[in-house]
Amino acid sequence: MSTLTFHAVSDADIAAARKRHPKAFGDPLVTTLKAASWAFITIYLIWSLGFFEIGKLLNASDRAWALMTRMVVWQDMATWQYANIYKGIAQTIAMAFVGTLLGTIFALGLAFLAARNTMPVGVFRHAVRRLLDVFRGIDQIVWGLVFVRAVGLGPLAGVLAIWVSDMGNLAKLYSEAIENIDRKQVEGVRATGADTGRIIRYGYLPQILPVFISLSLYSFESSTRSATILGLVGAGGIGMIIIERFRAGLFDQVAFVVLNVLVVIAIIDWGSGLIRKRFIGERGH
């Protein structure tokens, strides 16, 4: 077996090797396209930065420092109306819980109508999916504004916004879980002569229960944070207290409220971890 040395390689040999193994030498067109793509991304990024007026960060440093100082230095704590603050936090938790509960219940029913293996009528299935796209495609803040306009200021608007938003998101995820189940268990239940209700109860639900619990708990955690934001648009909860204190320049109270919200979210996350560990064997975070 002869060894090919570099000085023995001619242009004809290189051309022949390039023809036999074109990918080993790289495609000039692909290389050019990659370089053009990176150049376009770089130029677009630099151009986009012009919208953000980054120079304002340098001018706002003094104001930002003063704002942070007022948040850290707490004054006149005896006059902070703690009852209203903790009532708002309780209202926020209730909004998230009721909204998530309603969204979970309705999402489970819609999921069976949107899943391919439980809804054989294609036209109806696609209609349900498009409806879910509408629920998911509109941001929760927008739903909050819609329901504030429809039912007025207060937590009811927040509950409705969380309900509609969570229903669309969860129904989509539940339907995917239903489509990926083991069909042998369903066929086994059907072979016993069970009706549709029992097939769903004993064939489908046991398989999707871990996903159902995990997604529902995550949705509750997420909705607790969302309920805080919804209050900023008038949908009740602690968010309304935050925006009122912020407008009044009471930044120390804003910091206090935010810290309390973070503690509540941490407790909910811890409790959700215990429930996951109890029912589906998942370790808490």
From TrEMBL:
Membrane topology, as annotated: Multi-pass membrane protein
GO molecular function: ABC-type phosphonate transporter activity
InterPro entries documented for this protein: MetI-like (IPR000515), MetI-like_sf (IPR035906), PhnE/PtxC (IPR005769)
Localization in the cell: Cell membrane
PROSITE patterns membership: ABC_TM1 (PS50928)
This protein's name: Phosphonate transport system permease protein
Domain of life: Bacteria
Domain ABC transmembrane type-1: 89-269
